[in-house]
Design a protein that fits this description.
Oligomer: single chain
Strand order of the largest sheet: 3-2-1-5-6-8
CATH topology of the largest domain: Rossmann fold
Helix content: 25-40%
Length: 371
């Protein structure tokens, strides 16, 4: 006779926990309160987190995690179940021991395959409708026998949705504020990079103009106009962060700026970018991972939202400024907005006014000077 799946998690039977959240950067930041809650609710357990290698710096130095499994990005359009199961089984086999509790915070078929490969006694997770085509398998069959299965709730902020899942499992998230950590060595590299460019070690303006999603990106000429007008008004030391996927656009932006004094472009890795954001006085950014990292550090953010909903992915906290001139019908409009109509509805004057107000309210005492 086949035993009925267990409907509740017994903490006394849990010694090893696996948490799955492949990416991206902002999504991993969003689950850090859950990581902390698991550590607080299950003291003494071995906690392993699965992330894509390109995003692992977000959690690499978390004191709550014992082990990180770095998996590859899935470039194929569709992968057979057996192929992905073999990948998962191989990487999970390198981890120390078996898992008693596996938690799927990704919610796709691919992550459900990984859950199957764990063989965990308790399997719990969210079920998303996004990305189900990345692995060819039947979602219902994969999730049969899970202890807790919760459908995604796109009407809530992502952080609170993840917290709801943890509460359903039995580990309430008392503090939903995200947290990030960096190493001393990375801080030293960033300090050296700032010195080389004659920039102050902190209290600079951080501009993050590009995301990995084109429909979220504000036009380059508007970023250039904003930076020039801020320079004319305040002369702020300015760091423009450009990630690897946006090097060409970064070059185009700086061609518009024409060697503006005190404005530097830094092309650094994810860990170094995290350090830069911690040192910033103010971050001006589109809706992307660095926005959430800045908020996790407590840095005030002026965030430009286009085809996504702040109710779902706003920077966490009450002190940030959200600019959205045209609101989409749902939080996944970024998948369909090929013309960029939502982000293009934001004008330069509106952003300039928001940044200036943030300066007047929050940044008194830095070396910026009003002309």
């Amino acid at each position: 006779m086949i035993a009925e799946p267990e409907k509740t998690v017994n903490p006394n039977n849990v010694k090893r926990v696996l948490l799955i959240r492949f990416g991206g950067v902002g999504d991993i930041v969003h689950v850090t309160p859950c990581i902390r809650a698991i550590r607080e609710g299950l003291r003494g357990v071995l906690l392993t987190v699965v992330v894509e290698g390109r995003f692992s710096d977000v959690v690499k130095y978390s004191p709550h995690i014992d082990n990180i499994i770095e998996c590859d990005h899935l470039p194929e359009r569709s992968v057979p179940f057996s192929t992905e199961f073999a990948r998962a089984h191989e990487l999970l086999g390198r981890s120390p021991g078996q898992f008693d509790l596996a938690i799927d915070l990704q919610g796709t078929v691919r992550s459900a395959v990984w859950m199957e490969a764990t063989g965990a006694r308790y399997r719990c997770g969210r079920v998303s409708t996004l990305g189900e085509g990345e692995v060819t398998a039947a979602p219902g069959e994969l999730r049969r026998g899970w202890t807790v299965s919760v459908p995604e709730n796109l009407r809530k902020h992502a952080i609170l949705e993840y917290a709801d899942l943890l509460e359903a499992i039995g580990f309430p998230v008392g503090n939903p504020a995200p947290e990030v950590f960096v190493s001393k060595e990375t801080e030293e590299r960033v300090a050296a990079a700032l010195r080389e460019r004659d920039l102050p070690p902190s209290d600079f303006l951080m501009v993050n103009p590009f995301s990995r999603v084109e429909s979220k990106d504000w036009p380059i000429e508007r970023w250039a106009e904003l930076i020039v007008r801020l320079h004319e008004r305040y002369r702020p030391p300015t760091v423009v962060h450009v990630g690897p996927s946006a090097y060409d656009r970064g070059a185009e932006l700086f061609a518009h700026l024409r060697n503006l004094p005190g404005v530097a472009q830094l092309r650094l890795g994810l860990a170094e970018t995290m350090c830069l954001l911690r040192r910033a006085a103010l971050a001006v950014t589109v809706d992307t991972g660095p926005m959430h990292i800045a908020a996790a550090w407590g840095v005030k953010v002026v965030a430009l939202f286009g085809p996504s909903l702040p109710e779902r992915t706003a920077p966490w906290g009450s002190r940030h400024v959200i600019i959205q001139a045209k609101k989409p019908a749902d939080c996944r409009a970024w998948l369909r907005d090929h013309s960029g109509e939502f982000i293009r509805a934001i004008g330069v004057d509106e952003v300039l006014g928001a940044v200036s107000k943030a300066w007047e309210e929050e940044l008194t005492g830095t070396d910026w000077k009003t002309e």
